[in-house]
Protein 1
Amino acid sequence: MTTGIELRNLRKLFEGHGHASWAVDGVDMTIGAGKFVTLLGPSGCGKTTTLRMIAGLEMPTSGQIFRDGQDITDQPVTDRDMRMVFQDFALFPNMTIEDNVAFGLRVKSKKGKYTEPQIQQRVAEFLDLVHLKDHAHKKPHQLSGGQKQRVSLARALVTDPKVVLFDEPLGSLDANLRKIMQLELIRLHRELGKTFIYVTHDQDEAMAMSDAIAVMSQGKVMQFGTPREIYDRPANRYVASFIGHAHIVDATVDSKQADSLSVRLRNGDRVGLRGKADAAPGSAVGLMLRAEDLAFADAATDTIGGRVVDSLYRGEYVEYVVALNGNSGVVHVHARTDLPPVAHGSAVALKVNPAKAHVVVH
Amino acid sequence: MTAMTTIERPVELKGTSIRSARAIERRRLLLWLVPPLAWFTVFMLIPYATLLYTSLGHVDDMRFIPGLSLDNFVRVFTVDPYLSVILKSARIGLMTAVFSSIVAYPLAFYLAFHVRTQRLKFLIYLLVIVPWWASYLVKAYAWKTILGSGGILNVGMQNLGLVHEPVRLFLYNEFSVDMTLTYIFTPFAVLSIYAQLERVPTSLIEAARNLGADGWMIFRRIILPISVPGVVAGAIITFSLAFGDFVAPVLVGGPDSVMISNVVINLLGVAFDWPMAAAIGLVIITLGLLLISASGWLEEKTQTRF
């Protein structure tokens, strides 16, 4: 028996105005109990629909959802004991903050579980947890966006669910507040030890908070792994370009050893890299090159040649846009700001960090 | 010193030109205010002033004698049946408001939360409004055929064996006036309540279900409190329309179901007591203003801020 949430071949068909499409198209995933798992992808990739199916707000067209080994596919939303934090907060506007948080403790199924003084005490405790105890008697419209989201969080956590679902909860907050809330969520996850399933289109957010990320596209999971796996070893071109904006250059496998391989670019330059690839010598692959893994080099050996076409001062570093020789592609290079600037049009040699370069087959 | 004056002069000139520009602006603004002021004067100020002027005079030998007497206002509150008729009209208005709200709420609720496609929503919306294409009189007459001795209600009850002879209680009394007015004015309540229910975001209901709330709790704790201002607004509209009605009491009301508008019509057309009619009119207008202010306050008070 697995603990946690398991999705088996989950599919959802959306029909509208004469055409139908698979919003979620065969998702298989196991989310371990107590983990922080993020569904990441652009809008329309099916991440929110997947989350809503887990919550029970949407019925799957086919497939199954298990929780601790038990099939909950047909269990009504009211019985699932998973709490959702909505993007628009979904606070009850006619109730005080206190009553909003207490709502989940006063429902019929919880009747008799808590006495009214216990409810009040628990609500106070959780408002304190999200630093809002001074706002208990206010109405939602009197709070700022960040405060509203914290109420929504307290309302979800106060009923002590094992699973908390987040539907782009920080989407409507400004950048600074988002960073603060990210830290807050990490803290709460660590302190409470609940399973967090989080939906976002923001890869930085996903990378910073998650134990595991499922990168989704067109209703399918493209890769499911730790942030490090997804960043360093993307399974395919889609994941590589979606995460960290890697540049992918067409290449051919030149030679292959047990734990290293060498690829050749279209212009003949050769790049050696560590690690394994599921590609035979001679097959076409994509060489993933990230800006921070490239550096200008003096030596012409073991480097790839190109020409600087643009540069952008980013404060932390200078970002150079380099067109590789022989029309082989364009890469970005980050250089320290204290180095002398490289003029547009000058020929440069780039050294690739062999430990970080990566090839993608699909 | 000459240097000083040459500096001062252009500054002064500049100042005056600014001042004159403002004056032109102000004059232009006044020009813009003329149409609304004229509208207000012609359609509001003059009629109300005329009404007040009329109400302060009296009629002697079919001739209007101007005056400055409050006698007519005193008569509204002391001479039978003016006050009792006003109170009865208010009662009918209130019953209409209550019945309309009760009938309208479920439909508005269904329209707001259960109709999924825009096409069906539009169709139902249309069905709510469509009776307004028919003449008011026709609709009032229709209720005669429903409530009358040979009406569908009585025939139906006889056929079912519930009664042996037609029940006369349905028609020509206050109840039939309430029914007819409720039927005629309910669409206003539907639209008003629907507009308020439409404001409830789906995510609120989803959040409540997610927290384990059943349908009844969602309705009682979330939807009903948010919809109160819509119910109040609808009730005010139906009350006002029913209060001032004069057709329903004539067609389906009994001999004693005279409403205040019928009294005013009689004063104007039969008794030629225009000053008395004007006084009643002003009393009703004042009551109406009070009612609207109170309901505005109530709506504001109960309005949920999102």
Protein 2
Amino acid sequence: MELTPDDTIVFTVLGFGVNATIVFTWVVMALLTAAAAFITRNLRADVPPDRWRTVLEATVLTIQSQIDEISARPDRRLLYFAGTLFLFILTSNVLAIVPGWRAPTASLSTTVGLALAVLAAVPLFGIGSRGLGGYLRSYAEPNIIMLPFNLIGEVSRGVSLAIRLYGNVMSGAVIAAILLGVAPFFFPVVMDMLGLLTGAIQAYIFAILATVYISSATAVPPPDASKETP
Amino acid sequence: MSIDWITVAAQIVNFLVLVWLLKRFLYRPILDGIDARERAIADRMGEAARIREAAKASEARHMAEIARLREGREGVMAEVRAEAEAERDALLSETRARLAREREARDAERAEEVRRHTADLQRRGAEAIVALTRKALADLADQSLEARIVARALPRVIDRTGDLASAAGDSREAVVTTREDLPADVRRDVETRLSDALPDVAITFRTDPAQSPGLILRLGGAQLGWTVEGYLDGLERMLDGRGGAADAA
């Protein structure tokens, strides 16, 4: 039994094998982009939104409101980043009910890639918000002694993000496969339903944690009382 | 569990591409559309607020105009009321004056009617008295009324012929007028006695059916007489307390 779609080579280009993880990722990207482009075509401010456009607006505004609740300094770029994380992971996980679907999030390579993206985004958003010096100083807070611990904590965030998402999605798929062999008519359906729920929760958790990490990096610390003049 | 770093790199690139795609086809159109709609709503709200303010201002102007018109209407009503009262007073005064004139006219007409009725009654009474007297004289004494009137009136006339002659001046022709022809003996007696009282004056006798029974002597522009009508006038004045004798001339 293949635990990860990385092992399934779909086709080869110039000697490089394109595995199922990448192919299904492209499928998710195509679906999301096509649906968004189709629904938002001929968008006009003076025309009331139809049903699908209302769904998209509600989705985007819900993500925006979640970010606003977490972040002290809401930014549209954070919406682009965290919203895309949520939509990509959610779509990948929800499509698991389609027979033959191999969720890209069940690949440790995908979750590691997303975690690395978050790890890269945290300093970029932090530097963009507080400046390079301000961001680097945040690693020495509250004391320079905390520098190694902050660095370890920064790395462990990405590792925990990747392992959590991968473990949940992959374990769900593995359990569904095992139960399919034991009791092929009942448990797989229940597990698929449970997989939809855990998939949505995992997408939410991943996006929320990424938002929290980025927001903590962009948050301006309160002025140090000890440096205030009497 | 293994990590394919090439796949990791490909997935990072795929993710970044997806971020760009969704930003291009999802987030920007949706958020820009929402922003545009919110701006349109804000514009409409602002326009509604401006219209509301304009409506309030217009309402205030209209209320002020209504108040001004109401005050003007009260002024006009007071003026019209005063004019109406003046017109009413004028009409009442005119009506009262017309009623007074009509009352005076009716009073005068009534008085004239009373006077005419009295005169007619007097005339009828006199005629009745004269007729009764004439009948009584003719039946009981075989005398004519005119003869008895002349016999009674002639001495009174003769007593005042001096005044008559003085008033007549140089006139020398006297006319004796009676209602009916006098009997011949009476006429001779009258002519004789007048000739004695008025010498050098020619005496002429005439009859006038419109004259009241009696005798009238005219000399020039003056005259003396005694008639039943004059006698009754004397009686009337006596009854009215205006004095005068029943035998006034």
